[in-house]
Amino acid sequence: MANVTVYNMEGKEVGTIELSDAVFGVTPNEHLLHMAVVQQLANNRQGTQKAKTRSEVSGSTRKPWRQKGTGHARQGSTRAPQWTHGGVAFAPVPRDYSFKLNKKEKRAALLSALSDSVATGKLIVVDELKFDAPKTKEFVKVLDNLKVAGKALVVVEGTDANVSRSAANIPTVKMFGTNELNVYDVLDAKTVILTKDAAAKIEEVYA
User: Fold this and answer.
1) pLDDT tens-digit series, residues 126-140
2) HEC string of the chain?
3) What pTM was estimated for this model as a whole?
């Protein structure tokens, strides 16, 4: 089991925690990580792009000039793609880009992402996050105490309005509950911050 230092909100060491190798110590599977990221990005696509084909643009279906004898190339319609204001060849239409991964693959990909966070030293465990009132300044101070710079993913167990509202206005911070944890955001973050309760809950669910 990996021993990880636990910090308080002042950035001081207050102990250590043993993280389960079944969750935080697996060998990362790069293929599954790639598939999970592609799936999440694909599922987020709106798929509403649309352009008109030659059958949908306005205009006459009349042949613009006779077939032979004009010196021009033969043309059948002014709505063809080569004409100005003509239709688009192979025009995109609304479609669903989403696809599914089975549960075992999604689970393995998430464990790979968490394990990679531990192996690369970007995972920080804090004993708790608690504020008396929602204040962005206080949350920024906690990040400074923990020496967190760049994109940060904060994972908590349960809901605390003061904590979530304190982080809401910080553009580089994403905050999730343990039930919202996903591969893309774990990999995208420069630092992953877990509360002790969140770490225990993740181990309870995935170990």
Assistant:
1) 999 999 999 999 999
2) CEEEEEECCCCCEEEEEEECHHHHCCCCCHHHHHHHHHHHHHHCCCCCCCCCCCCCCCCCCCCCCCCCCCCCCCCCCCCCCCCCCCCCCCCCCCCCCCCCCCHHHHHHHHHHHHHHHHHCCCEEEECCCCCCCCCHHHHHHHHHHCCCCCCEEEEECCCCHHHHHHHCCCCCEEEEEHHHCCHHHHHHCCEEEEEHHHHHHHHHHHC
3) 0.83
